[in-house]
Each structure stands twice: as structure tokens, then as C-alpha cells.
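#struct-help
A.M.: can someone run this one for me? Single chain, 352 residues.
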Amino acid sequence: MKVLFLLCLLTQVPVTDSLDLLVERVHDSMISIDTHNDFSMQLAFPEQRATVTKGQVSFELMKTGRLDAAFFAAYQGQGPCTGEDHGRAKYLADSMLMALHRYAREHRQLGAVAYSAADVRTLKKQGKASLLLSIENAYCLGRDISLVEHYYRMGVRMICLTHNGNNCVADAAMDSLETHGGLSPFGYQVIQEMNRLGMIVDVSHASRKTCLQAVQASKTPVMASHSGVYNLKKIPRNLTDEEIIAIASRGGLIQISIGRYFLSNLPKAEVGMEHLLEHINYVVDLVGIDHVGIGSDFDGGGGIVGVEDMGKMKAITRALLEQGYTEGEIGKLWGGNVLRVMEEVARNADGF
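D.P.: on it. C-alpha cells below:
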């Protein structure tokens, strides 16, 4: 906090006011990225009844919370692995992605779809939000490898291999049965094709075996877009030390979710910033600042006391400063690490 106290002396304003100024300065100098939200579900299908809090995501809220970019996921729940059901999953994913493109067009004064790290940087300079496209659950691929490129051409730059059930690509963390022993043969092909095109492999929701196999199978770093630390909350969706170390050893990222489900066993009303920081600090202590970030899961169950929506995101920056993190470290955690992975994944793509 030496920077803060120096700022106080120079500006002769109270510590609280100076910290607010420092938070704004940090956000001016860095790019902040949230790697997972479920905004597209209600956007594309507003008639569906929501089972979790909605309204946590928008370009307007991103501006208020000083969030520069976010991965907006096209989600499909897992169903039977039949041709008809795969077709329905593809329809859902395509509909959500088209709705996100429409949202960006209709709010072009506030933001735009970004396809690369360079786009994110350009939009930051223009004072606009970046909408990055991802898929949550490769169920929509069915058994058709050509659909990986179909989604790349729709703008998708990250695919989460599974959701809460096994699909044709891989086994999921929340499924009670083991279908493939991790990745299926088709799953290995999917990762190879994602590497060729320049798409990030997302291992959140993956089984332990799937995660470790994906880390080894991918030629580029993988990301757990919205997870937590198993040793702090022992649920299948959180990552063990072995998984965290494996992901980091290949340059990948562990993005901590902002939600009680991942962070604590306390009642939701009692889960706040200290629990989020506990998970962040754990990853930093285990593998370093270069391998951690934020994946909120807003509009999909995310939200804690003090960070209820995207409009409150800069509260995390304030808390990190109070913990003693430097501006450089906060810049890596908030977006620098993600931009690095995006650039490496794109650089290793085969002609795309």
C-alpha cells in the first residue's frame, strides 16, 4: 500500500478518496476481462423462466464497473447424445450467438464483438466494451468435427468441452458415470481442430481425467473459465492442486468464479469478497500471478456480497490493492493473462 499512502501525501485527500482514485487509475492503465457469463440465454430466449438471478450483465454495467471485456457464453444443457438432440443443441448455440451479435449491433455506441486480443485493445482505446464469444458445452458439436470451424466463423474463440453431463467429446465433472475415461477419440480431434483454428480449450466443467488429458492434448494453454479451488471448497466443479499445477505448467489459466457455489459453504448472504480473495490467493501462492483471473458466471448463478453484478467489478480491484497486490499484478490478473493466452492461441493457429 506504499503507492496509496504516497498518493495521499501528494493529493492531500483522505485515504478512502485516494484509494478510489487509485482504483480508477489502475483501470485506466489496464484491460480487465471476465471470462464467463450466461447473458445470452435470456437474451435469445426471453420467454424461458430463469432459475438464477438475471440482469447482472450488460454493456452499461460493464462501463460502470470498469470491465473492458467479457466472454459471453452460448450455453446448452446436456441431453441425450442422439442426432435429433445434437441438432437441437446446435440450434440453441447458434441462436444465442446470433442474439449476441445482434445485441452488439444494437448497442454499437457502447461495445462491439471482439475476435482477437488486438480488437480488445482497440475497443479499450475507443472507450467501448468488448464482447467475446464462447460456447459452454461442446454438446452442440455432436459428432461433427466441421462444426468447430462453423463456430469459429461465427466468432467463437473459446469452447468449454462439457457441462454437467458427459457428451461425445468428453466426460464431465458432475456426471456420476464415466463414459470415455476422460476425452473421447472425437474429443482429441476437437482439441486438435481448436488448436488449428485458434480457439481456447476451456476445461471448466470437465472431469479430472478430461482436464488433465486436455492440458496434454492441447498445443496451446488451456483455461478453466469459471471454477474454484477444491481444497477450499470440495465440490466436483472445483480444481484440485494437481489440475491447477498441470494447467499452469503449460501456461494456462485458472479463472475464479464470483459465486457462493464455488467459494464457500456459508449461506449466500454471508459469502463476500474475503472468500473470493481466498481462492485467488490460493492459486497465486500455488502457481503464481501469471495463471489466475476472474470468470464471474454472472446470469448463471454468480454474485457475492459486494460484487452482485458487473457494475461492481472494480470493487475487486480495490480489495486487491488493499491486500497489497501491485498495479502490475492486478493488471495480469484482470486481463493481461487472458490477453497473453489469446495471443498465444492465435499465434499457433494454422493460417487463421
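A.M.: thanks! Residues 22-347 form a domain with the TIM Barrel fold (CATH 3.20.20.140).
D.P.: also worth noting: The chain has a mean pLDDT of 95.
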